[in-house]
């Protein structure tokens, strides 16, 4: 029976167990529905009013039936005990840590996800790569409000809570690209707080890690907006600044961002002088926000390579090329 996994693949070791509980509940609920509605229909037909019956007639008053009441209390109680047992078993499987698990630090901020691979010193934004067939431990933290890490194909879900580190364990069982969705309402950009999760074979994963390490170490040369800057904006700024209602950054022209410059002191871009450009000041981790606007800069933010790229782009004239 695959009504769930046929639509939504099972991508972790917990998925089949959780689907089983769903199916168990669905079948039990269906059986209860059929029994209750069946008796209802039967009584409606059997005791319907027939021609010649007295329309004012009163039915007999029946009080109490201890045996019946015990039975209809005991059956649901037994059902709940069985269900609790099943759930506890799966729950303890989910929360059990594994000593040799591959660790990923996940930071949730309004409104983006950041995944850091401490073993390789690689950080990625709005995506999360992980190897297939391995135990994974996610260390979750939130920099502002409560968010929730949810990948439907993984079936498991865990809140990220400010000031309270949380953890999540699973084994990846299926190569693929999945959607990471924030499942806790966290503000105006909640609906945009999505990222891709890539489960790759171990060799593909290690190749990706190597590629990231090389990219981080590469010197910054000639910078192109389309190639180097737009992806950074898309990963970091877009969730809040995509529309006119939310700060007015248009990625096509970044006119909105320049318009935003009216409320912050100084120029947004000063060609040849990135240190005096508001945009460059804003992207420094741990700095105050010019104009008093709050941006989620508390977490692991742009890598130094990203910041150098933006600095070079400003110095090269902040062109839309
Ligand atoms: Cu973060 Cu909803």
Element layout with pairings:
Elements: H1 15-46, H2 66-95, E1 102-109, E2 112-117, E3 122-125, E4 127-131, E5 135-142, E6 147-150, E7 157-160, E8 166-171, E9 176-182, E10 194-200, H3 202-217, H4 225-236, H5 238-241, H6 255-260, H7 278-282, H8 304-315
Parallel strand pairs: 1-5, 4-10
Antiparallel strand pairs: 1-2, 2-3, 5-8, 6-7, 6-9, 9-10
Describe the structure.
There is one protein chain. Among the domains are: 102-216, Sandwich (Immunoglobulin-like); 219-315, no CATH class. It contains eight helices and ten strands. It has helices at residues 15-46, 66-95, 202-217, 225-236, 238-241, 255-260, 278-282, 304-315; strands at residues 102-109, 112-117, 122-125, 127-131, 135-142, 147-150, 157-160, 166-171, 176-182, 194-200. Strands 3-2-1-5-8 form a five-stranded mixed β-sheet. A five-stranded mixed β-sheet has the order 4-10-9-6-7. The two termini are 53 Å apart. Dinuclear copper ion binds next to loops.
């Amino acid at each position: 029976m695959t009504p769930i996994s046929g639509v939504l693949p099972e991508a972790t070791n917990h998925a089949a167990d959780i689907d089983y509980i769903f199916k168990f509940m669905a079948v039990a609920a269906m059986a209860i529905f059929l029994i209750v509605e069946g008796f209802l229909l039967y009584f409606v037909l059997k005791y319907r009013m027939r021609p010649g019956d007295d329309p004012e007639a009163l039915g007999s008053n029946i009080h109490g039936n201890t045996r019946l009441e015990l039975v209809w209390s005991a059956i649901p109680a037994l059902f709940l005990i069985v269900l609790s047992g099943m759930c506890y078993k799966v729950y303890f499987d989910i929360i059990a840590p594994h000593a040799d698990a591959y660790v990923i630090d996940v930071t949730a901020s309004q409104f983006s996800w950041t995944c850091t691979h401490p073993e390789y010193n690689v950080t990625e934004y709005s995506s999360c790569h992980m190897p297939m067939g391995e135990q994974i431990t996610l260390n979750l933290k939130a920099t502002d409000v409560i968010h929730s890490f949810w990948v439907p194909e993984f079936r498991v879900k865990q809140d990220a809570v400010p000031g309270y580190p949380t953890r999540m364990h699973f084994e990846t069982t299926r190569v693929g690209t999945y959607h990471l969705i924030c499942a806790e309402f966290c503000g105006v950009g909640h609906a945009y707080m999505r990222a891709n999760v890539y489960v790759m074979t171990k060799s593909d994963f290690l190749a990706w890690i190597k590629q990231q390490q090389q990219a981080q170490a590469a010197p910054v040369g000639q910078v192109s907006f389309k190639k180097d800057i737009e992806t950074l904006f898309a990963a970091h700024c877009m969730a809040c600044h995509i529309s006119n209602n939310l700060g007015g950054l248009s990625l096509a022209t970044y006119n909105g961002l320049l318009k935003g410059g009216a409320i912050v002191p100084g120029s947004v871009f000063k060609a040849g002088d990135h240190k005096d450009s508001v945009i460059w000041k804003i992207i420094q981790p741990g700095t105050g926000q010019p104009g008093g606007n709050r941006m989620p800069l508390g977490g692991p933010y742009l890598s130094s390579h990203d910041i150098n790229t933006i600095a070079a782009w400003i110095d090269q004239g902040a062109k839309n090329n």
